[in-house]
Predict the structure.
Amino acid sequence: MMSPRILGAILTVAAVSLLSVGRLFVQIADFYPTAPSPDGVTDFDARFAPLRAMLPAKGVIGYMTDADTPASDTNAQAEYHLAQYALAPVLVVRSSEQRFVVGNFHRAVTTGSLRDRGFKLVREFGNGIALLENEKVR
């Protein structure tokens, strides 16, 4: 039979070892995040997912953004290209002269102001995304 002194020493070494391994697991968990944070493209793409699900497999759709945003604005250009990516294989053209137009708005737009410009709101998807119908094009 083992003496109490030896048994105590073995239990002490085992406890210290377990604590050391537990501390290592905590350090590893802190080093690796639980879930990677999505990049900007993934976030942008997610905004368009409900609209994409509603569109046909192919076709052409117009694109518009806030009326006071110049076409030369680099952020506006980047968002247009990201919208093309998010809605592919549907062809997205930077024109409101298509029957259906996707609106990517950063400021509130009223249905009245859209109607004044010849557009009917088909559906609003939130996050500034809307599907519009150009009532001048049938």
Observations:
- The mean pLDDT is 88.
